[in-house]
């Protein structure tokens, strides 16, 4: 300290300036090194997020295609068309198939054509793709399920020279000698946007190229000018690993990363030029050197000016920040005003910009939450409508069959009763709202039971026990019919003894509506009962393609409809004992309109 006192003020200022320059240079060097690593890691994270999003989109869109293909391949009219031998009946089915395929095509953008290629030589298509059926059949390894065949040239047929082809084997699902026989193949011809989505994955700042490649390393789509179906220029591929590799490609050094997509046996490859990653950092380094030069000039200013232009504004800014932090009377709408050097003004500007971003982000967060709530509500409504559309219609066909047989051997009274009951059921199912009072649902059930009693020659009797307050509660339409149908066809029809069917409803102590459907028919084995309970415990989206699920789809749909409408704590319970019968219990929550009953 004594040595410093002997030096002139100018020397001390020079020493201070030199020390400051040295410190700043060290800081710049450290910042440059740190930011280099940050930028590299940030780029890697961005590429990983982009690739993950593409992978999710591809997997999600492939699942959508899978569900549509399953809907078509298991459709009764498709199955009937591929086994029908009568030309007139086949022609009627052909017209229905055209309507079916057109409606399914509208469910997903980017579907260019849907082709049903039957093993009996019959083809059905929308836009003329049936002519390629033989060529596509030769490329299949056997029975397939939403199998990605590959990219195929289709000329000017679809307005694009190349399309992606997915295939699903159509197997006969009706019980009999031909069960599980291969009837043909369902082909979906799609454009790349149906698989990846509409979003553009541009990375202009680093010129990163992203390619979606199939199993043959052909380009499906990319954010470059590469055409669908083209091959990339030769390069040393990094292999199917998760680590980044540096390779030389087209005379430059690139960072390459690949991620597999097992759903379609494809991969995503990102290619980023290494010299572009640190391009912005050089600009930042130049700006820091400019700031350093300005800082050196400031050292020549007297200390009084330094105190006035640096310390005082800094104190003001600290006081302002403390007030905001403590949540005083100052609102985010106010701004900090500081006069001083560029650094001070820059800090004030950035701080004011930060306050503006906080205010803007708060508003955006509120709007986003509102949109998410609306989207979730729409999704649940869509799932509910989809589940309702799957109600098994076999009882209608059985009823019509019974009416036809009885018309030939009996009088008109029974036919009149069955026809009137059937008319009531049809009118009830197609009119009205999605939610109705239980007493209206019960009237429809009585009509349905009357039809079955006539059909089975009074082999069973039905009793109804409902409290008045239970009849006034609202339930989803057609919620009881699948359960009564199961009781008749699986519990009563398969036994020769006279049986009884009991349907009851009441309100328990917690205000929950409880409906019971009970029969004393054949019942079921303990193993099957456990399987059904396991399926009922699955979430609404957890559908399985197992045979057991298809046999119990009616009960699963009823359970899912209740859970989607009233919550996961409600739904279906089932008890059964072999030879003793089955009891199915439904639990419904209370809707807002029920409070006004």
Give a written overview of the molecule.
The chain has 597 residues and is an alpha+beta fold. The protein is built from 18 helices and 17 strands. The protein has helices at 2-6, 9-73, 76-83, 87-105, 133-137, 192-196, 274-277, 279-298, 303-325, 342-388, 394-409, 412-430, 438-455, 468-471, 481-492, 526-536, 547-551, 553-566, and strands spanning 111-118, 123-125, 147-153, 162-171, 182-190, 209-213, 219-222, 245-249, 252-261, 266-273, 435-437, 460-466, 474-476, 499-507, 513-519, 571-577, 581-588. A 5-stranded antiparallel beta sheet has the order 2-1-5-4-3. It has a 5-stranded antiparallel beta sheet with strand order 7-6-10-9-8. Strands 12-14-15-17-16 form a 5-stranded mixed beta sheet. A hairpin with a 4-residue loop joins strand 9 (252-261) and strand 10. Helix 2 (9-73) runs antiparallel to helix 8 (279-298), helix 3 packs antiparallel against helix 4 (87-105) and helix 10 packs across helix 18. The longest helix has 65 residues, at 9-73.
């Amino acid at each position: 300290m004594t040595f410093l006192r002997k030096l002139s003020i100018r020397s001390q200022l020079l020493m201070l300036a030199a020390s400051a320059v040295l410190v700043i240079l060290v800081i710049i060097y450290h910042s440059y090194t740190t930011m280099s690593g940050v930028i590299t890691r940030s780029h890697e994270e961005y590429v990983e997020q982009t690739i993950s999003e593409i992978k999710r989109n591809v997997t999600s869109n492939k699942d959508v295609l899978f569900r549509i293909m399953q809907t078509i391949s298991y459709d009764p009219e498709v199955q009937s068309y591929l086994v029908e031998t009568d030309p007139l009946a086949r022609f009627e089915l052909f017209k229905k198939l055209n309507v079916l395929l057109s409606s399914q095509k509208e469910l997903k953008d980017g579907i260019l054509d849907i082709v049903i290629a039957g093993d009996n030589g019959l083809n059905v298509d929308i836009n003329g793709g049936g002519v390629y059926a033989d060529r596509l059949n030769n490329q299949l390894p056997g029975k397939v399920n939403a199998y990605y065949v590959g990219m195929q040239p289709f000329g000017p047929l679809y307005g694009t020279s190349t399309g992606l082809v997915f295939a699903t084997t159509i197997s006969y699902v009706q019980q009999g000698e031909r069960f599980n026989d291969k009837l043909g193949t369902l082909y979906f011809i799609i454009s790349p946007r149906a698989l990846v989505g509409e979003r553009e994955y541009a990375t202009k700042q680093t010129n990163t190229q992203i390619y979606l490649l199939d199993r043959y390393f052909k380009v499906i789509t990319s954010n470059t000018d590469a055409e669908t179906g083209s091959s990339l220029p030769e390069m040393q591929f990094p292999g199917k690993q998760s680590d980044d590799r540096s390779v030389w490609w087209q005379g430059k050094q690139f960072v390459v990363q690949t991620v597999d997509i097992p759903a379609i046996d494809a991969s995503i490859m990102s290619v980023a030029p290494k010299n572009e990653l640190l391009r912005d950092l050089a600009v930042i380094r130049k700006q820091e050197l400019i700031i350093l030069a300005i800082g050196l000039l400031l050292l020549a200013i007297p200390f009084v000016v330094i105190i006035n232009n640096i310390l005082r504004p800094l104190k003001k800014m600290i006081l302002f920040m403390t007030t905001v932090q403590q949540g005083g009377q100052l609102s985010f709408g106010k701004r900090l005003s500081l006069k001083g050097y560029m650094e001070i003004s820059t800090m004030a500007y950035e701080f004011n910009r930060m306050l503006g971003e906080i205010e803007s982000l708060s508003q955006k967060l509120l709007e986003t939450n509102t949109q998410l709530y609306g989207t979730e509500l729409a999704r649940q409504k869509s799932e509910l409508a989809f589940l309702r559309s799957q109600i098994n219609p076999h009882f209608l066909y059985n009823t019509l069959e019974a009416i036809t047989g009885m018309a030939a051997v009996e009088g008109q009274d029974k036919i009149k009763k069955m026809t009137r009951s059937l008319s009531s059921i049809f009118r009830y199912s197609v009119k009205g709202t999605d939610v109705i009072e239980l007493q209206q649902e019960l009237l429809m059930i009585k009509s349905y039971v009357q039809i079955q009693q006539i059909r089975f020659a009074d082999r069973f009797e039905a009793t109804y026990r409902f409290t008045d307050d239970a009849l006034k509660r609202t339930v989803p339409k057609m919620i009881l019919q699948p359960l009564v149908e199961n009781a008749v066809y699986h519990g009563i029809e398969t036994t020769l003894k006279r049986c009884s069917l009991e349907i009851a409803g009441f309100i328990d102590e917690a205000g929950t509506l409880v409906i019971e459907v009970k029969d004393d028919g054949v019942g079921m084995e303990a193993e099957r009962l456990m399987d059904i309970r396991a399926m009922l415990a699955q979430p609404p989206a957890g559908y399985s393609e197992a045979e057991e699920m298809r046999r119990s789809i009616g009960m699963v749909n009823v359970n899912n409809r209740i859970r989607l409408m009233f919550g996961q704590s409600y739904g279906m319970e089932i008890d059964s004992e072999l030879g003793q019968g089955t009891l199915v219990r439904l639990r419904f929550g209370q809707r807002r309109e029920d409070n006004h009953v």
